[in-house]
Structure formats: structure tokens, C-alpha cells
């Protein structure tokens, strides 16, 4: 590894990975909340369309979707996205579909009495969602969202296949330049791991904040030096099954 | 959108060939993930921390780093150590190893879910350690986690196109090759995407039904 490779490729690549993770996570969060809440709609057509979206995007592979957006969209529909945004779109739509299941599960897990109380107080549906349901549902969503965020971070490595110059892409170039595969791939694996570790810590902090807002203490962590939450076992709520599905969400 | 049915018809046999490879990689990867995951899960319960901690650290590291990078790691680093595998074998190893870190957690949850009384009964019957595991604990633990394991098989199926990036001739690679030689991109890529949905959706319905049957 020479200093030039670091400055010209690996560090900018790492920055691209961080940016991709943040933008895709934001986009996925918007999709997840929008679709997750729409799936509880009273209109069957809304439920059907959002359900269709979720099944399609959970059913297909993120990599195939990325190739599709990258190669088929320009030919078939005559407009081309900048590779970076095609990647954000693909990741956001895929992980948004998984996230919407988390949102739906957490909203459904709020005790029905809360909803009934809000109706009795003649809240409008929007007020009910914003003032009563979501504040209680969001703290429950954070641990599964954390798992999904790590999956998303790992998913960003796929963008190197459509020539976005992220960390993995930079590693490929460095390997071609120096031929030292072991060193380069070890370094970037550690880089990804550190990023995952930092993100997990941040999400823990967020969870503690959100739970404190409700006057609850955060769950005691399961034993072991695990970064991510245990996918199942610890929590036997409706979300636990979604969590398992979301585990290998690419 | 200018869809050409003739191109789609031409690509169909290639898609079939690729599908076989995709399924083969998924099946072999699953077997490896199930077996290795069980090894990790048992190691988590080892009485000595000199086994528990290193295994937990390695599992955590593998789970929190991208499969794609691990794939490249195996593909480019193993040959420098004079270990030469075909692309498909390398891919299966990486896929299986990566997902074994997920299945390990599933097994762990299943084992933790076996009631204490079962352990005590096994002790009372003075079954040996091996017998306790094989005849009492694992059959009950694995039964409860079958749907969760199935979901990971589906996840592996959806991750298998990554193998195309190290040159395994799966569905995605067939589409890429077809596009590169004929500039026909629309039909192959769309068909590959639809093929994944056609396999993954019924499979996930099956897992959901199984989950209800086994009753959580």
C-alpha cells in the first residue's frame, strides 16, 4: 500500500461508502415509514399496492436491481441516473421494503387501548399516528433498524459492480496496482467493521434517548460481545420473525 | 420500453442454465451454512472462554463485513496460499461461511428455547453429553428454527448473484454475457429479476406457512 493509493482511492472510497450509507438509509427510512404506515390503510387498493411493492422488492436481489437500474433504465425508458443515485435508489428501495415490515410490525404492536383512547379523545387519524402511536412504536423499531442499517452498509459494497468508486472499488484498483490482495482486503474488511461498530453505537445511543423519552430503560443486552442484537429468542414479538427475514436482506 | 419477445425467447435457455448454477450455489451454500452455524452455536456454549471468545469475535467480524468483500478476499487471496478452487467452490465457501454466522444465532436462539427441564431430565437419566445433545436438545431446538433457517436460504438465493462478480456463470452472469455480446440488456436483466421474484416469493410464503404451523 502506497500513500498515493490511500489518498487517491481508499480514503475517498471510504467517504463514498459513508455517503452512500447515509443517503440510502435516509431514503430507505422515508420509504419504510411511508409504506409501512400505508399498509395499515383502510383502503384495500392502497394496502394491495404497497403490499405488492414490498413483495417485489423483498423478492428480488439488490444486485440484480442495481444492474437493472443501471443498464435497462437508460435503454428502456430513455433516462439515465448518475451511478451514485442509481445505487442510492436501488439500495433505498430494497431496504425500504424490509424496513416497512419493521414499521408495520412495531405499529401493530402498540397496545390497541392506546389507539382506542386516542379515538375517544377525538384525535384525527393523523394526530393519532403522530402523537400517540409513533412515539411508542419508534423506540421498538430502533434495534431491528440497527440490524437493517448494518445490512445496508454491507449492501453498499455492491455498488462497486456498477463502477461507483466506493471502498470495494478502490480495493479492486489497489489490488490491480500492487497485487497485494491479502493486505488490501484485510484493511478494507476492518474499515467496514469499524464503520459497522460506530453505527451500532450511534443506534444504541438513539435507542436510549427514545426509550428515555417514554420513561423506559433500554433492554438489558443479551450476553456475549455481540455488536448487533440477537436476531431472535430475546424478543418474542411480531418483529422477531421480520428481523430474521431482514437478516440477509440483500 | 421496447420489449422484444424474440430476444426473450433466445435468452430463455441461457437463463435456465444460469438458474441451475444459482440453485446449486444456494443449495451447497445452505448445507455449509447449516453445518458451520451449528459448529459456531455449540462453540458459543463451550465451557472454556478460550473457545467462546475467539469464536464469538470471528463470527461477529464476518457478520458485520460485506459478503462481496469476503468473496473477493477468498477469490484473490486463497490462490496466493496455493489453495486453488474453482470460482463456484470459492463462492459457495464464502456464501456458506457468511451465512453460517446468521444461522449460528438462529441455532443459539433455538437451543436457548429448549426448556431447562429437558436438560435436567437428560441428567437424571444419566445420558452422556453427546447423547443429550443428539437425542434430546438438538431435535427440539432445530425443529423450532426451521422457518428461520428457511428464510436464510431465501436470503442466500438473493445474494447468490454476487458470485457472478467473481465469474461464476449464474443467471446474472448469463445476462451480463448476453448483454456484452449483443447489446440486448432490457430482456435478460428483466427476466433475471422476475426469475428471482418467482422463486423467492412462493418460498417466503412457504416459510410463513411453516412458521404458523410450527407455532411460535
UniProtKB/TrEMBL annotation, chain A:
**Which InterPro entries does the annotation name?**
AA_ABC_transptr_permease_3TM, ArtM/GltK/GlnP/TcyL/YhdX-like, Ectoine_EhuC, MetI-like, MetI-like_sf
Q: Which UniProt keywords apply?
A: Amino-acid transport, Cell membrane, Membrane, Transmembrane, Transmembrane helix, Transport
Q: Name the Pfam families for this protein.
A: BPD_transp_1 (PF00528)
The compartments listed are: Cell membrane
Q: Does the keyword RNA-binding apply?
A: no
* Domain of life from the UniProt record: Bacteria
Disordered: annotated segments? 214-250
Membrane topology designation: Multi-pass membrane protein
GO MF entries: transmembrane transporter activity
Domain ABC transmembrane type-1 per the UniProt entry, residue ranges: 14-203
Name the protein family.
Belongs to the binding-protein-dependent transport system permease family.
Q: Cite the NCBIfam families for this sequence.
A: ectoine_ehuC, HEQRo_perm_3TM
Q: What name has this protein been given in UniProt?
A: Amino acid ABC transporter permease
> What is the protein's species of origin?
Streptomyces sparsogenes DSM 40356
Instruction: Cite the source lineage.
Output: Bacteria, Bacillati, Actinomycetota, Actinomycetes, Kitasatosporales
Automatic annotation (TrEMBL), chain B:
**Residues in domain ABC transmembrane type-1?**
19-207
How does the entry describe its membrane topology? Multi-pass membrane protein
- From the record, give the transmembrane residue ranges: 20-43, 189-210
Q: What is its main location?
A: membrane
Report the locations given in the UniProt record: Cell membrane
Q: Which SUPFAM superfamilies match?
A: MetI-like (SSF161098)
Keywords (alphabetical) are: Amino-acid transport, Cell membrane, Membrane, Transmembrane, Transmembrane helix, Transport
One GO molecular-function entry: transmembrane transporter activity
Q: Name one GO cellular component term.
A: ATP-binding cassette (ABC) transporter complex
GO terms for biological process, alphabetical: amino acid transport
Similarity field: Belongs to the binding-protein-dependent transport system permease family.
From the Swiss-Prot or TrEMBL record, give the protein name.
Amino acid ABC transporter transmembrane protein
Q: What's the source species for this entry?
A: Streptomyces sparsogenes DSM 40356
